[in-house]
């Protein structure tokens, strides 16, 4: 998975907590228009050695070699102006993106003198200097370091686990000199990526089909659980009857003849991760009186919609309502009578008064989650907390931030009895561990969360 560098600069706590998917059961699940999966950005690996940057704040370069200045809040960042990037020999690129305070590159030429590598990753969500081979590095460095996830950078080869200072890439593969996530499945502590792809030293979601347990995403493609392997897997998808790279969509209008398409026309949807095609509409004529989602085209969202139950004439999709909490449009859906009708694991609770399958109605509906165990009935979503009593020793802190609904900490004392660790990371405001001594026995400091070490059984 390509991790998203801009998210790291903008907000750490907002990352990767929710993966939004599409529902193919006639239903009440969210669609790709709501959002995209966000990758968790790990801590940095060992930085490259190099001359001290001129003109940079020494306290910032001491924190990370590519940091140079402080922003308006007093936090160390990569840059405020281009001069901060040009004056720092360890900058990740020569140009300052002032929205995110990060140094970026636009082409390989921008990386000609970079200690990180000679290749500019031009992915719009990355844009920094990386390496593809050892030849881009000055000996004895090799293309073995890791920064912001999957990109490699030049760094000193490791000889033992002690050389691997990143909490995510903490294991040394001695033959290659590269710090890796794993060598065996047991090294992968995340429930999202529990399997080790030993050839690459990466934890992945799956290696074979049988490891994909979500009924909506049962196939393993490129070590990711996806919804389809062939077009035959998309006959009930509201996105379309064409399988492209593991996801259902369309290639032509003829792919929009399944049982529950968002419309009869194959439309192109703009996305910051690349345009994609799905079934939809650009006029009421693409919907018609017997369209399963409704007879009226919402041209903003390019979906067939409804205004009232009377618009819903295709059984069993007889109720008109929003496809997810806060949606700006309504569609026809199959109403639920009990929880057994709610097959989407992300929306398991049936609200019988509306026929909607929701994430939660009460706290027990959130019990399966690691941290978000409290039901916010204002929008029927699972959150960490609404008040301080929701923050237990199993939470990431002992105080509830009611603006974010996260359990947080302010000092080590707040984490004295916390199962995740006795140390408070005051930047991320969560309890974590640095060593096993920070854990309540028999727990060990072997887990990771948002790039920080946490105690696990």
Report on the architecture of this protein:
The protein is mainly beta. Among the domains are: 5-38 and 227-358, no CATH class; 388-456, no CATH class. The protein has 3 helices and 32 strands. The chain has helices spanning 5-10, 58-63, 82-86, and strands at 69-70, 76-77, 95-97, 102-104, 119-121, 128-130, 142-146, 152-155, 171-173, 178-180, 195-197, 202-204, 219-221, 224-226, 242-244, 247-249, 265-269, 276-280, 296-298, 303-305, 319-321, 331-333, 349-351, 356-358, 374-376, 381-383, 399-401, 406-408, 423-425, 430-432, 444-449, 452-456. The strands form 16 sheets. The protein has a two-stranded antiparallel ribbon. Strand 3 and strand 4 form a beta hairpin. Residues 1-52 have low confidence and may be disordered.
């Amino acid at each position: 998975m390509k991790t998203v560098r801009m998210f790291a600069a903008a907000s750490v706590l907002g990352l990767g907590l929710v993966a939004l998917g599409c529902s193919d059961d006639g239903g009440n699940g969210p669609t790709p228009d709501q959002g995209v999966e966000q990758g968790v950005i790990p801590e940095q690996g060992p930085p490259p050695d190099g001359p001290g940057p001129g003109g940079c704040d020494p306290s910032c370069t001491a924190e990370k070699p590519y940091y140079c200045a402080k922003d308006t809040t007093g936090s160390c960042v990569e840059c405020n102006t281009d001069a901060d990037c040009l004056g720092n020999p360890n900058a990740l690129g020569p140009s300052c993106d002032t929205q995110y305070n990060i140094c970026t590159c636009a082409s390989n030429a921008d990386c000609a003198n970079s200690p990180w590598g000679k290749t500019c990753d031009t992915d719009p969500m990355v844009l920094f200097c990386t390496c593809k081979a050892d030849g881009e590095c000055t000996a004895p460095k090799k293309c073995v370091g890791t920064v912001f996830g999957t990109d490699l950078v030049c760094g000193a080869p490791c000889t033992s686990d002690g050389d691997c200072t990143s909490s995510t890439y903490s294991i040394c593969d001695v033959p290659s000199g590269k710090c890796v996530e794993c060598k065996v499945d047991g090294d992968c502590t995340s429930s999202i990526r529990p399997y080790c792809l030993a050839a690459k030293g990466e934890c992945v979601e799956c290696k074979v089909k049988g490891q994909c347990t979500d009924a909506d995403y049962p196939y393993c493609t490129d070590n990711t659980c996806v919804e389809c392997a062939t077009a035959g897997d998309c006959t009930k998808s509201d996105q379309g009857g064409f399988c492209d790279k593991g996801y259902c969509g369309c290639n032509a209008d003829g792919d929009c003849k399944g049982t529950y398409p968002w419309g009869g026309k194959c439309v192109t949807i703009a996305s910051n991760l690349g345009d994609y095609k799905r079934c939809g509409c650009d006029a009421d004529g693409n919907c018609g009186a017997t369209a399963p989602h409704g007879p009226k085209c919402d041209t903003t969202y390019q979906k067939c919609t409804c205004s009232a139950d009377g618009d819903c004439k295709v059984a069993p999709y007889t109720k008109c309502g929003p496809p997810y909490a806060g949606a700006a449009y309504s569609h026809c859906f199959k109403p639920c009578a009990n929880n057994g009708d709610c097959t989407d694991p992300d929306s398991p609770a049936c609200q019988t008064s509306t026929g909607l399958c929701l994430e939660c109605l009460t706290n027990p509906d959130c019990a399966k989650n690691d941290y978000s165990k409290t039901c916010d009935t204002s929008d029927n979503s699972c959150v960490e907390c609404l008040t301080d009593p929701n923050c237990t020793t199993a939470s990431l802190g002992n105080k509830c931030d009611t603006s974010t609904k996260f359990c947080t900490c302010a000092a080590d004392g707040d984490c004295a009895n916390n199962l995740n660790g006795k140390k408070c990371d005051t930047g991320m405001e969560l309890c974590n561990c640095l060593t096993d001594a920070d854990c309540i026995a028999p727990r060990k400091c072997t887990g990771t969360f948002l790039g920080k070490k946490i105690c696990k059984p």
